[in-house]
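Q: I'm teaching a short session on how sequence maps to structure, and I want students to see two examples side by side rather than one. Could you give me a first protein with its sequence written out and its structure tokens following it? Keep the formatting plain so it prints cleanly on a handout.
A: Of course. Example one:
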Amino acid sequence: MNEYIARYEQHKYEGYSTIDSLLFTLSTLKQNREDWINRNKLKYFGIGLRFDKNPFFQPKVTQKNIAIIGTVIEKLNALKVSPDYQHEGETATTRLEMFRILGEQFGELSKNGETQQLFNHVIKEEGSIDFSMRESTLITPSPVDILTENGEPYVDEQTWALPSIQAMIESKGIPVNLFDPSETDLTLEHDLQDHVQWAYSRIYQYAYPSSYDDTLIARFHHGIQHVTRAANYARVFANLYRKYGDEEAQHLTENDIKLIQIALLFHDSAREGDNEDLWDHESAILLYWYLTRILHVDSQTAKWVAEATANKDPSPEKGYFELNEDEDGQLSWQFSQFEEGFFPPKNIYQKIIHDCDCLDIIRARNQYDANYLDFYKDIASQNELALEEMAELIIEARGLIHHQGDSYITKDEARKLEYEHEEVHARIQTDMQSGAYPILQALHERLLSVEELQTLTLVDLTPFDDTAPMTGKNLAAALREGRILARGITTPSALPKPKANKPILPDETLAEKEIRKSMRAEGINTKSRKEPPNPKDKNPLRSTSILGYGSGVYPAAGLLIFNPNLKQVRRVSTEDFDSGRGQKAHLAHLQEKEYSESREMLGQELTDLHHKMKLGLFGKKNQQGSNYVEILYDIDRYDAIFYTNDPTIGNSIAYDDFNPAHRFSPLLQAVYLQKQYERQYEATRAAYRERYGEEGEALFLQRFGSDPRLPIHEYSGLNNSLVPCDAALLTKENIVHMWVDMCSDFMRDSLLHLDEDTSYYVHDSFFYSLNVEDIKVCSMYKIKVNTLAQKNQPADLSYDEPLRKQVSDAIEKARENIVAEYEHSLLEKLANNQESALSTTGFLVLQYSPHLREQAADKIKADLLDFVHSGELDACQLASISLPDVPISTLDIPHCNAKARNAFCKSKLIKAFILCQQSGLDNEAQLIRNKLGEWAKQLLEDNDLSKSGLNERLKLRQLMMLMDPENPLLPAVNASVKEIIGQLTTHYASNKSYLQSSYQLIKTLDGAGFPRSQYQDEFRVVFDKMSEALPALRPSDWLYYAKVIKLLKEEPHPVINRWLAEYEDKIYNAEDLLGTFKNLNFTLSDENLELFNLLVQKLHFNAEPRRYVQLPYWFRVIKRLEALTENHQFSESQLKILNDRLGEIAATLIEEGQQMSPFYSYYSKEQKGYLQLISYAKEINTILKANSLPVPDSLINEFHAACNALDQFDLNQIQFAKAEIYLVKAVHSQLPGQEERAHVLEKMTDFMNTKAQAEKEAPGARTASGL
């Protein structure tokens, strides 16, 4: 998605109207284009460095686009102030006028440019709310082509002739006798199940004609499951329309419902692919033929139903597509223009067909939008009860779709296959009647009378009572009213990753850290490097999400906050806005008093957000799993713990699967959190008593309550439920049972996959190599490593020692039983020749189970003798054996690394040799050794001295060292390896790429375990070559050079000293170079201060050969440089050199700022002065954050001057940003001369507060969520 489409979508999420979102986006786009022209104009005329010039600078094209954007902005503003828009706001009519404004300029824009893409996106996406914007195989041109003036508008009575029905059927890949009436005796009166069976057997069981999907499901996204589910929604919507007074709906009969359901069965029948539907009108024709030829429905009724299907989304051309059949049975579509200036009203058939299909689109979206539903437009948008019932229906549909394996976040093909048959209707009805979907169950079976509907309670709207306990209806009310926040902790028992300059306690897990921070108060629970530690209170700016209305959560478990305090809310967003983890220093300004939004504004933002959640508008539109909102909240206590078995994005990030590792994993994570909270509760209680004396107990209880054990709740966004977990069920006995069940399932599954290649895994997950603690981790989190933390740990760490031991002992006992059961089963398979001793599974188990080897000794010998003497050994080829790129020292499988184990298992020869040795078959083992000798003779005779020849020799050498180290040909093989190395290094020394090639060769030799002592002399010629060309060595070459230096055991200091002295260029992108120096144990001290100074001067302040200063980069480089110093700390003399260098860089930065002023010549002098101030503040802030060098006086003076210059400006001419002002104030407070600047900062603050108040009080002011 291009940048401006993303901006537009963001404005929409923030609550702005379509026209305002577009105006904001176009204004930004226009400004950026003008900036681009001004920047490149200077380069085009020779101002700036040669490599800065833009060879594609085309000012005329860009200026034309700017003019077009300006025209569009002008017309959109005119539309916004028009009487129609002012009176009615955004309607289908005003939106269509907006599309026409975009469309008439569309063809004048640069083709496929960002602006044209934005226009196209708005027309198609927003147009789809009210109209059909899709292309059609039958009706041309498309609505988008007409709006963008790439096609002529439809005219009244325009007709499109259609291909014959036979030709259409043949193009779909379905039986040609589809509508042969002799094949069936179906009538309209038959049960819907019969119509579903017909549709499946004759249409939906057949794949699309050009389908290449690797799936057993014929039509994965638009098959029988989708259309049958949509058909089952028909009565539900009909009853809702009837309940809220739709007269057409109140006159519907069961016969009408049957016709609507059949229409829904056919609405995707003519599809030829799963992407955009181009076949709406063709599907309507197949429906018409089914009704008239198979069911013998009268043609007028069939025409009515088919037209309702084709017109479920009306045309933006303000007309209606009619289906006509002539006397010869030839069909055609005809466009009927409605009265001038009006849209034809949708009938109830169109509305229900549209809404049923639209509701089921949840299966293909991370974010749903009920704005598209006709029921919402006509009724729920104006009726609060209808809105709540619609919201509940959306939730139930999402849960039903997930239950059937069809959800967007996790498509479960195995589950979907359970609905891929003729009886799918009965299966879906059974699901709807299960009790999990109250509205669907209440409304889907029959048409209810208006009286029945009026007395039927579909949702309980009992208000939340903050004085009542959080149970039962009050808990449900809190969930419905958005009064519950969730703070998730992914893999709570994992250790956090170490951070630079922030040592962490090795025993403080992610959960411990989170809970401790939430209980901070005036030095209590504060861990800091500083003495005394900074006073910290609460855990500010933490990411939380609101539960309810189907909103998901980030991970599988976490903590809950009931009835949160609005004063502690810092930011509101309909989606995860990537605020990051950790301290969130970039959002610290949100805590400033003058930055904080008013309670009224935040309250309105939360209200707006809550409304959007009812419509399904939460989460990121296209990011799988991000189905939740984000609230930044200052956490000072927790009230409960949650877990969920729903799929979550946290699971996916932790171990690449949205689903929990096991059904008990989330609950046991919650138990871990509960017990960890108890520990921290008691520790904090003691700290309060120590800190506050007698009143400490009262203060503690006032904040944290009297119960150290937080209740656990199960949450499901898919079912929109928060259910307290019965504490009586969480006994120690049951906790042990859950651990055993979870670990047992993991162990059984692992044993079923012993033959899986794990050599590419980042950790060794082979079952027999895991201890009990590993099994605990893998059964809960799937893997031992953690991308979000340092490493995963067992989630029983918070248990008392007796319970931990009980859990471990029970798992060990289960392990013994499962292994014994599995090995007994394998023994039977070996005995019955269902498994071979040389299969991967059989071989591996035999290696880890000596007693099984004894029991299967006869079978093992038989398999070995067969392999050796049947000719299979003779057919083995050296080329078929692959060895890992790591040295191998043993054939003892239990003591091999994962790569070696997997490599051995792929070679029948190696497996046979190992088993021969273990079985005492010395003669057969010798025959296998003889095979190695044959290969050695072949290689030595072949005399292939290429790189591939070397690889084959190295592989053979490894095999001989492992299997036949006394082989008389081994010395000859070694000699041939050395000969090839000598030839290759000589060749490399005369080649430009000698350095990198040498590096790769050394890696190959190391990986093959070839002793360095046998080949290091051969690389002397390469080292000598490098010494001759040392000044020309590039910094990027040092990675390879270092490998050779270490191989030859050369002293690195003289080489580095010489290179630094003779290398003439600046050093760019220096972080890798300094890392290489560190690996060579190169040290900088006061004894080589001149060298240090030389290196500092050569380290450029930009990662690329450009003249502008990148201070953050430079300080990162300096941090790497410090790692080369004694004790990893700069001396006073070194700091003096760095300080002087920073002063020089500051002078360059100031000069650069002054030289760049022409780039901003199109800004007002006020805005230009403000930007200069912000620029200096950012640079100074970088220096202050580095906390290693003082800010140069020159920069302080420039900041001071820029700040005071604003005192002379009209602040109304400046576009201030709150975050930038916060930055200026933060920098100001840490620099000298504060008194001389204070009045300017106070003036800016007062100006911004006054302006914000005026904007709030302006008529029609609208806040934007997240701003």
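Q: Perfect. Now a second example for contrast.
A: Example two:
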Amino acid sequence: MSNIYKILKRSWNKGVLLLLLLTFCTTILFAQTAVIRGTVKDESGEPMVGAVVMQVGTKNAAPVTKDGTFELKNVTPGATLQVNFLGYKTAVTALKSGQTTVSFVLKSNTIGLKEVTVNTGLYKRPIGNFTGSAKTYTGAELKSVNPRNVIQALSVIDPSVRIAADNISGSDPNKLPNLQIRGANNLTLTTNTSAANPVSNGDIMASYLANPNQPLIIMDGFETTLQTLYDMDVNLIENITVLKDAAATVAYGSKAANGVIVVDTKQPVQGKLRASYGINANIELPDLTSYNLMDAASLLEAQRLSGVYNDPSNYFNDVAKQQWYNYRLAQVKSGVNTYWLSQPLQMGYGLTHSLQLSGGGSNLRYSFSLGYGNNEGVMKGSGRDRYSMGYNVSYSGKKIRVSNATSLAYVKGNNTPWGSFASYSKQLPFFRNNDEAGNPIKILEPNGSELGFGSQAPGGIFVNPEYNSTLNVKDYSTMLSLTNNSSIEWSLLDELKLTGSLGWSANTPQSEAFLPADHTSFADNIGLMGDLGSYQQTKGNNNVINGKVSLNYRLTFGKSTLLTAVGGQLQKTSSNGTTIKVLGIPNDYLGEIGLANGFSYSTLKPNTLSNLSKSVSNFASISYNFDNRYTAEVTANLSGSSQFGAHAGMTPFYAGGLSWNISNEKFFKPNDIIQSAKLRASIGTAGNQNISSDIQIYQYSLTNNYRLMLGSTTGSYANPDLQFQKTLKTNLGLSLGLLKGKINASLEVYQETTDNLILPLDIAPSTGFLSYRDNLGGTQNTGYEIGINANVIKDAKRNIFWTLGFNTGHYRNILTRLSPAIDAINAKNNATTDPNNPLNGRYQTNPLPRFVVGQSMSKIWAVPSLGIDPATGQEVFVKLDGSRTFVWDANDKRPIADATAKFKGSASSNFNYKNFVLNFNLMYQYGGYMYNQTLVDKVENVDLLHGNADMRVLTERWKQPGDHSSFKSLVANGLNGLQQTNATSRFVQKDNFIDLSSLTVGYNFPSTLKWVKASHLSAPKIMITQNNLVRLGTIKNERGTGYPFARSFSFGLSTNF
């Protein structure tokens, strides 16, 4: 029995062991055949069709289907799954025991995203199906260049985006930039603003009138103003796309000739409630390095040499002037040497707060933003305050996605009560600005009777602009804006989507300017006391309603991909405003418009303006891609607008593009030099409607009274046949990947020819009008853009990355056709620079524009000069026939040089070492020219009797026969500096420069730090940015004459919760 028991026991143990072995094997077998199902979507809930889900360490993979789902078979327990999709960060998750479902949410890779899709604002296209010229920049890229000025940052990193130089406004925080893409297609005289037009930056139509070359700005699919982009919080920007050629812009039809800037704001992100907070403190310092003014002793000596203090023709006047010289000399010897430039200036401070909340599930998502920013200018009392808030809510069902976004913004801009900076640069330094108690002196010098002299001071009465800062002066503007955008997206089929959206925006701009009677601007007023003091008030209302619908279809068959977008939109824009100017407010504490004595003599009544514009636009776009090698794209638009004549009707615009991805050809063999290459070409037309809405209709005015009865007169001559301006755009592009992907290079060559340019046409005076507007002109822009980006170091193991960037661009515009009426404008410009013209008073001394067929709009016209004659100290000019003369004649003017640079662009460096960041951007210009107005106004034509001057007045002007000098004599022909200098080639100088636009140093705090963990912060970061730190140039002129330029320093901290 015992033996049998032992045998059974051994058999049982073997059986159990065998059973366990079979169970284990079965478990493995079933584990190998386990199926994992799930979804893959992006942050906005869109299915990531084409993404691949794979088991790490194996070749086991499954694609994501059209509805965003996947099914991966034969997954082992505890496996790690990974999802890859071009343009998005890789998502990785480890499966838990028994887990059979998983959901992935892919986050966009901001570095690679701009290479994958292009958003035109009306539809999105994969880069493989897009043939146009476009560049996309992320909000992070823009913030690293300039954390407070989006437009300035964009102009630094994109060579086609240019801000016209404004040497008067400098760094005035309330001055909007003059923005252009690929140069100018319009003459500034095509605008038709009137004196009664209370132009507001919140009025879309008025903003285009102020700059007819301004690009169209689209934000989240709807048209917006330049001011909205200027005041926008950079933390709310996801990315900005610049559309340049016809293939990229033609869907906008009549609005796209100047290019399009498309702004995408951040959308709600799926997940638990998260918060992002950023704070940025900035300091602005005035830059006065371009000023080289005389001190008190030097100015007094210059006045003496110029004959201010002697009068050989009158003994008594000569004695009185000598008395004044001795008095001022005593002031200088007592130590009076006022540095007037510093009086109105300050160190400007600013603080910006930005808070965003976001969260939600797979269906309902939401976000909320709140922002505040103030920016003090470098002139005392100037600044700009911004307040903003908004929300975005979206709901995604199985077939329908609905969203609504609302934003509210308030902006207040304060202009300095200290007046123009030019009034300080002209002040005489031997005047005291304050009394013994430190209070500003209104009249800077005692009169002759007080000093016992026989006459008034040379130059008359001098007033102190600093005195105005003690008065209750008002000079500000405000604007309250409300925007609401709603959209609905319906997936009719997996490949077919219908989208509809409705946008509404309204803003109420207002400005007020009050100067009391004691203001120095009224110091020379000899009228009645009831006329002293002024108050001007402007109020407006602007509304825009935009509705649009589009249908997008995607079809993939074999190696082919077909994308189609069809849509249309209606827009109604209305604006109205009233300007009231009154006089007679004696006390600065009575600063109310209702306390004035009466209306201004120039207006006699309130000025009102009302504009209404309606437009319709329909588009269709088809893109076909075969085997990711060949792409053909065709887009057409049909537009109509009430801004043009009743006979204009609907106008078609079209564009076509081709691209060839050479890298995917079988014959192409990647090598160590060239890894990838792609060619693009496009041609098409776009329109421009940046004109007044009233030039195609008759207008009537009620300004004339007859025997106390109102009568009407015709104010403008109608042209019902006025047509759209059209610009034919051609573009060639080449993209290259070089040196095993270390260098990416691009080249764009383009030509833009504008026809039907709207210009004035002379008509018979018997009609009661001198001219009316018609399609009579044409321009042509030709240019190129080059971009190079190099990965110098890319070491992921040591976490070291260094990239260098370089871009450059050039364009040249010429006039191809002009109205005969332009000859009258050129003749008038000649007349206003003629010193013998009795209608001028003090004639202009700067080159005025001249418009000639075949010449550039940016040409500098002046009379050729051979320099200063060493024998006489007079300037020698060259006449049209080649002869020489000492007499300046406007008819001898000719094109001397072009203000447009041969090369203009930027260079950048981005260095990352572990958690440290060091970036900088340089802007440069070469081959451009500028007329140095400083040499005219502050050296040769300087009014030493009333103002200060450049030091070169004493050191570099001709003094005696034989002197070889760059400047004329201080005293010419026995006259005290009365011989003026007109537009001359002598002062046309090369304008080459290098500007350190931005320098950024940052640090990303590791999440492993104890204080980061304890505070529950995520990705805290600190950034220090410096803008406009150094400028090196070839021209020595005063910059920022009305408002100084500034150097800014920003200190930013951002984090997530």
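Q: What should students look for in example two?
A: Point them to this: Residues 22-106 form a domain with the Immunoglobulin-like fold (CATH 2.60.40.4130). Also worth mentioning: The chain has a mean pLDDT of 85.
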